[in-house]
Amino acid sequence: MMEKLKAMVPDHLIDMIGDSGTDDLPSTCSALLNYLHPLKHFRQLAKQLSDPAATTCGKDPAAASQWKLEGNAAFAKGDYPQALKCYTKALQSIPLSLEKIDKIVVAALHLNRASTMYKMGMLKESIRDCSRAIKLHPSYSKAWYRRGQVHGNLKNYEDAIKDMHMALAFENSSMGKAQVRVQLENIMEQSKNAKKSLTCHHIDGTNDFDCGDYEVDLPEIAQFSGVLTADRGWENQAENNILPGHLVLQEEPYVAIVLKRCRDTHCHFCFKELPGDSVPCGFCAVPLFCSENCRDHAGGNPSGTKDSKNRPLSEQILDDSYCETQTLSLFENDSCQTLPVELKDVNWFEHKHECGGMSWAAVLPTEVTLAARMLIKSIDRQSFGNYHDHSTCVLPNLCHHYEKMQTADKLELHIFAIVLAFCLRSSTPEMFQITGTFISKLVLLIAQVRVNAMAIMHVSSPESVGKPAVSRTVPTIADTITCSVQEVQVAQAVYLRASLFNHSCDPNIHASFISRRLFVHAIKPLPPGSPLELCYGPQVGESRLEDRQRWLEERYFFSCKCRACSELNLSDLCLSSFRCAKHDCQGVILDKAAVRLEKLVGTDFVSYANIFTRDLALPVDERLRHSIKNVSHLISTENDSMTDVSPGQCLRCGSMSDLEIMQKVANQSLGYLKRVQGEICLTSSTGNEKQRLLDEALQFLQSLRSVLHAFNKDIAKAEDIIAEMFCLTLRPESAIHYCKVSIQVHTYLRFWDSDLSLL
């Protein structure tokens, strides 16, 4: 529907918006608002997004009943993963607010889900759901019985016996009491046997292992400060010597949101993977949380305590894990600069204004919902400091690059901002007046999110992202021998202090995440005054120069001039290159022409290599020059003559190769290698058949080595495939060699300016 809305905008408005700058935004927003507001299509869209009755995001008792029936049917058939999914959907759909909740029905759903998880071996999760059922319905004998049964399986005999006694006390039927007594006697017998076993093996009565209490000492945070530079604007610079591994920054997000594809798999507050007993929001059917604690922090507590206005300040402030003590100075004026963060961020509920069944927060793009959260949080912070004029709300002073955007992007921002304005007014009608000025703020907010939001990465298997834990397949033999684990994006967030880190394709700091908290560590020695540079996307060694530049231009509207993008380097030369046909030559062959030329800089002529349509200066470092000369003598040697290298020509010895044939051989070999990898993973054959597939794969690897340079990234990929295949044939000792080669290639490409003696 949004695309249809874009198509309705007349050309003169599109031209007006395309030519607009930030000063023109109030008038362009007003003009587009006046055009869209009378349209039937726009009104229908706004209603669908903001009217709880027109969406499926609200609580629905009828849907909950249907999900419960489907869960019961799946449980009866032994399809426990499907039953777990259905019971969770039922809990999402059923009203949980105090005035609407049917405690017995909800308790029964928790017990059904607990029984399902018990069948699946998810015992701790089962106990938690039994406890929720008991809290809602204290005399629920079946919940006491099930929890006692699970405690018994976990050998928590004391708790199991207590729960069974409670089940016996609340059970009314004679048959039920008899069943409980039998189970109680079994648990008591198991408890006696366990005590005898402990007496035999632990004469002193102590445990074999006692981890005790411990504290993790975090390293002292390195000092840095924001400095206004002439060529790069604001940047963070080191104030003292910072060594590799030192913690530079830890910061909680200003706003954050889980990705759409992770909504059913990751907690909507802490972004960790959801357990089987996920906790739904109390007021709508969208979010799922890993615990009641995360639900309460997000603002979905059905107990009615989510409103912090009437609570003491000491109760509003979050615990230490969600507080920072530094004072921010990232706002447009001084109205907020003196308020410490732990007072500004008092239990701000990021989901509160989206709750109640409206679908806009779930349907609109993630960046739009984040912009709404930024606006609401800014208003809440200033309201805490007695700033009640929401029309003059001060927003974080982050870059937005609106003037550099294409017309299509500007139009999209305008439409999203107008739609969001109507949705926000539906959520909080007393707070907003829909005017051109207000919409213009939303335009810039969405633009700020596009430029400044960081991807929250968690370590996971990429195949599991977007799939509920209960729906993932049981690990095969192949899964237990090899694993594919990497950082995958699960959420998006805006970090105010971290937003001042500038980009480099060869960064000296690295970002990691624990839950939603950002940690930034140094990965290179940083003397005082050094700029702290983070990589925004693909790094040198992962992507070619022209691809990095294109991505940064499209995403962040600048051309990177970091050292890796300004100097000729080995990584970009070798990353996607071919090898020379001469076996004793280490030269690279590029898939595009390269030129060595001299340019007048000041009063001196400086040598440049023109590669990928960019002029790259030769490195000043003699060691790097020598390493580059080993693979590209023709363009790395200063001489009086101009050098023009043709496609297919070796940059070291000048010999020619057929580039088209080499490209074809490389593509076919890599494709065949992946096919054989798939066959050996799926085949149930053993012995000779797997050996035949492995021999075939080794031939394809040899073909690949014959045309690609030794440090081409596809060589590393192929070596990994061969290593995995050796593991699948139960020969891990043979896989080690191929793993080492792959690691060597990746190390060479990533740390191109380190010791490269391995050439």
State the helix count.
28
Helix content: 40-55%
Average pLDDT: 82
Tally of extended strands?
A: 18
Instruction: Give the percentage of residues in beta strands.
Output: 5-15%
Task: Give the termini distance in whole angstroms.
Answer: 57 Å
Strand order of the largest sheet: 17-16-15-18
Radius of gyration: 31 Å
**Secondary structural class:** alpha+beta
**Which term fits the overall shape?**
globular
Largest beta-sheet details: 4 strands, antiparallel
Unreliable spans are 199-217, 304-346, 384-389, 471-480
Features:
single chain, 759 residues, alpha+beta, four-stranded antiparallel β-sheet, three-stranded antiparallel β-sheet, 28 helices, 46% helix, globular
Task: Tell me what you see in this structure.
This protein is an alpha+beta fold and 759 residues long. The protein has 28 helices and 18 strands. The chain has a 4-stranded antiparallel sheet with strand order 17-16-15-18. Strands 3-11-10 form a 3-stranded antiparallel sheet, with no helix packed on it. A 3-stranded antiparallel sheet has the order 4-8-7, covered by helices on one side. A hairpin with a 2-residue loop joins β15 (594-601) and β16 (604-611). α7 (103-119) runs antiparallel to α8 (123-136) and α17 crosses α18.
What is the fold's blueprint, element by element?
Blueprint: H1 2-8, H2 11-18, H3 25-36, H4 40-50, H5 61-76, H6 80-93, H7 103-119, H8 123-136, H9 141-153, H10 157-170, H11 174-201, E1 224-229, E2 233-238, E3 247-251, E4 255-258, E5 279-280, E6 288-289, H12 292-298, H13 313-316, H14 341-344, H15 360-363, H16 366-384, H17 407-427, H18 436-452, E7 454-460, H19 477-481, E8 486-494, E9 502-503, E10 509-514, E11 517-522, E12 533-534, H20 545-556, H21 563-566, H22 570-574, E13 578-579, E14 588-589, E15 594-601, E16 604-611, E17 614-617, H23 622-631, H24 633-636, E18 643-645, H25 659-682, H26 688-707, H27 713-728, H28 732-750
Parallel strand pairs: 9-12
Antiparallel strand pairs: 1-2, 3-11, 4-8, 5-6, 7-8, 10-11, 13-14, 15-16, 15-18, 16-17
